[in-house]
């Protein structure tokens, strides 16, 4: 059983993640790379890197599931499944008691309801930048700070400022106003974290928040947002050690489960001659 | 640098404060009623239901008004958020969503008033009375509250004929019958709900109460045509609640309050005192519903010499003496007292001589725009602020056409400011102020155009 | 006289691409074409006077450029698109326009259309909002006034006999549409949700008798063809505001689902109940158009005189026909959709979803904004939903 391998590819708008596991759910390799313009067509390169790390070739992989925003750009995948289902599965893998999951990515935010390790309901927000990683990027740039410095800075705040504007553009203006009026930088940054967390918490509450609550996605690396989310939800928020991988791991696990089901019904036919090629715009 | 003691931009009427305080009494009455076990109805703005409910000793509480109170106190946010998590789309009426959030909280607290609710909150309703007056969203809103309360919902129908229809023979009488029958059914329902018969002698609609207040409001509004404008829209909105969301509150205090208001406004007119503490550079009309959450924005405009002298919503009706002596049915009497035919309204406005011409124009065009635009001319407005509301389509849909027609007929320009009645996040005051500054040039330009055309302002 | 050479689905496609082609032919032959917005204008009264009713819809693929001068952007984009299309002259062939009190914006649009597009004949029916007996009486009166107006417009008398004949013809169409919908019961359904919209739209752009003939040929066509929809894992019911374009359906059906039933108005709503025969035909018409058509713009309740509301009974009274649809068409999931800024359906969403939850039908709420661009993110949501119910 151990020498059967599965791959999950999460092609997000900002980051591409690949995870390879074996038949006993052990992670053999994981790779995270910037999606950029290139990787949207070149998920194969990231896959190759992961295979290299695992010491495998593409022929060893029994089943590949692609997920994420760009999941249709993975021509060598057996199946495409939404990041909603994959994240839920991945979160349940990290935290078996998880009932609510929040994922804030580069361009969207989602909240998932999980029961018995599977997705049962969800809410998505992808119409605007507020409440996503983009919001923090824009703010960081406007303040001349590095994205990774925002979190630690916000934790220094003693009196966070309330940012009332819902829109990223207007929020920027408000920030400038606050700073000119003499507010401390860490207090303003804490206010911004509160704004993004508040927005996401509001969205999440449509699902009736139940513990354990897990937070994933690039923004989960920001300790300031984690804290603000806990304050807004009024409960502890858990973050996996690798918050970017829940989608890819979930996809790989689902790949494993899919093959097990197909094998049980005697209908599993592994893809032969799988080629790691770039996505093309023409079929 | 010269030392300038800058006074506050708005010169608010002193008598306004006492009247505004009457609204608190209304909420108190609601709370008392519930405590005493008396029935409480959640209703809409002073419409058909209110006089009937009063006659049946039901206390009226107004969620619309309560929502605007929450917004003005900057406390609506959590209720709006709660409505969102309850699954209500976010473009729905701000009043409705605030009410939904409030209701969900009440249910969570087993029917208790949420501690975070301002002004003592609203007591749990015995019944909900919605109506088609003003907008359609209202009855959908109350219908959806079935998730939170087992209070029955009664929807009062209200006809909304087109202008042409209104002037077609037969329409008025048919609508009178419709309204009368609807209200009769409402009474039957109330009698069943409350276990007692309606005492028609208590149906108070021609006496001192409502009409006297309406007449005083009308007279005050006529005084507001003076230059400079003596009463700002902000004061109008502050006292409006006392008149229109009266519910079971004793009308005497409100009548007296309006008499004092009249005196104070008359004094200002006689002495040329303006509603703003700045030279009156521009006279503005406000179209749409007020931004309850950001009324201070109008103070910023007042600082620039903008005096808001009239507004489209909550206006008093022209007080007309109607002879109802031949009508025996009390409900029908009530209907005829409040529902005036368009033909009669045109005669009221334009006089018997000019009326036929106006009627012909309306029939031809299919729209009563001359009536609608009239107040801009009467108040000699230099511009109109159109408050397009994200969450209110009833108030906003007609604004673009209105602004077009206004420019066409009276050469008065309009400024569109997008916002909302309740939701602060939808309004950007800095941007609105910038737009306003630019608009001043437009108003200056059209003043010249009107002058060249020979219009009197 | 030009005769349509195509029949069945080929004719449907032709008409879907260029809807006014037939009515323009009829107009040049002397017929009067009367546009109508939504499903509350009483079509039988127009057909009876030999007017050709023509459904006015928007154009999702045309950017709105002219309507903004007359309607702010915070209103229903479908209605704005209708106005925009009218302002661009695409409805200049209409001799008349009949609207009704469907919603606040719809009523406003009626006035704006009259003022700006200036279709020669214009009438607005102030349809009441509840199913009270008093409301029925009011609608009877309103239809009496509409009758007089139509008689003036056409210069002809509208007799009861003419009206009864028109009712029979329209009922025939309703029966044919229901027959069409029966073809969606098998697995896989013989026609897709997207095709259903095309067919209904085509039918609503023809005079009634021609629409009936088209339906007959479509039904025959569909029964005989071999290239219908394929079997999918999910069978869905779609509930909500007007879908006058196939884009949303196509998006849903590009995934592992077939849309087998709908409760929308370029769909089942106008067709699933017949006008009942009554001595005075106006009675049957009033009851049909106010009570039988199930649209959230009409306030319904389990018992208007109940002194306590029983939420579940109320939901059942309002929505049980939907679980009947799901049962009869074997739907295992519901797409609850509404266009942004639609208040009528917006307020209904929590209640209708409560109902579906109560009867064990999984549902998802999609809000769209009447543009093609908005559909891409909805795809993930629909797929996620299918993965949950799969």
Q: What integer is the average pLDDT of chain A?
A: 89
Strand tally of chain C, please? 8
Total helices of chain A: the number is: 9
Which series of helices and strands of chain C comes N to C?
HHEHEHEHEHHHHEHEHHEHEH
Strand content of chain A: 15-25%
Return residue spans of chain C where pLDDT drops below 50 for at least 5 consecutive residues.
Answer: none
| CATH topology category name of the largest domain in chain A | Nucleotidyltransferase, domain 5
- The CATH level-2 architecture of the largest domain in chain A is identified as 2-Layer Sandwich
**Number of helices, counting only DSSP H or I runs of 4 residues or more of chain C:** 14
Helix content of chain C: 40-55%
* Major sheet of chain A: 5 strands, mixed
Decide which structural class fits the backbone of chain C. Answer: alpha/beta
Question: What does this protein look like?
Answer:
The complex is a heterotrimer of chains A (283), B (457) and C (390). Chain A has nine helices and ten strands. In chain B, β1, α2 and β2 form a beta-alpha-beta unit. Chain C is α/β, with parallel strands linked by helices. In chain C, α4 runs parallel beside α5.
Secondary-structure topology with pairs:
The complex is a heterotrimer of chains A (283), B (457) and C (390).
Chain A: E1 5-11, E2 15-22, E3 27-34, H1 36-39, H2 43-54, E4 61-67, E5 79-80, H3 83-94, E6 100-104, E7 109-115, E8 118-125, H4 133-143, H5 147-155, H6 168-180, H7 185-204, E9 213-216, H8 223-233, E10 237-238, H9 246-264
Parallel strand pairs in A: 1-4, 4-5, 6-9, 9-10
Antiparallel strand pairs in A: 1-2, 2-3, 6-7, 7-8
Helix pairs in contact in A: 3-9, 5-7, 5-8, 7-8
Chain B: H1 14-35, E1 40-43, H2 48-55, E2 59-61, H3 63-72, H4 77-85, H5 94-108, E3 127-131, H6 137-144, E4 153-156, H7 163-166, H8 171-194, H9 208-223, H10 233-244, H11 251-270, E5 282-287, H12 296-303, E6 306-311, H13 330-338, H14 342-365, H15 369-378, E7 383-389, H16 393-396, H17 399-410, E8 414-419, H18 429-453
Parallel strand pairs in B: 1-2, 1-3, 3-4, 5-6, 5-7, 7-8
Chain C: H1 8-17, H2 21-28, E1 32-37, H3 43-48, E2 51-56, H4 77-87, E3 96-100, H5 104-116, E4 121-125, H6 133-154, H7 160-182, H8 193-203, H9 208-224, E5 234-240, H10 247-253, E6 257-263, H11 281-292, H12 311-328, E7 333-339, H13 343-358, E8 363-368, H14 375-389
Parallel strand pairs in C: 1-2, 1-3, 3-4, 5-6, 5-7, 7-8
Helix pairs in contact in C: 1-8, 1-9, 4-5, 6-11, 7-9, 10-14, 12-13
